[in-house]
Fold:
Amino acid sequence: MLIVLLIIGSYICGTINGAYYIGKIYFRKDIRELGSTTAGARNAGRVFGKGAFIGVLLVDAFKTFLPLGIGYMLGLSPWVQALLALSVLIGHIWPIQLGGKGGKGVVVYLASALVMVPVALFASFLLLLIVKLLKVKLTGVGLLVLVPAPIILFVQHEWQTACVFSLMLIIVVFAHKRSVFNE
Structure:
């Protein structure tokens, strides 16, 4: 029962969309009607500026760290913590109070990886450098930087956690489908 409550609470944390609320509170505008119409950090940065981008990153990272930190403090297994991360991601992409129009999940995914597979972020950073050096358009190819987390988890024989991270990766790519396939 506790795990079910934590999963529901994680979803609720996920629905706290940094881009939407920063846009509404500070700029009196709905980010979902501006720029790419996505309620995410990248669009907020484009539309409202660097300060908004950083604010959204902080909100979206914190809303991910909170349930994962609680799961860790309660001694939950890594794969159950990964389920909490998945629930935050689902809440971020499909927030019920915003009619299912949220962000694309990159910050939530990376914040989850930072907590659960920190070494993956080093590999992601190296991939990002390579993509930047090759001057490739970032969205489609840039999603490659998300791949190390599930691979490292599989290599570490964390099968269940790796499967959850793989599902999260598929969801993030799916959320980017319009950007990826229109490049």
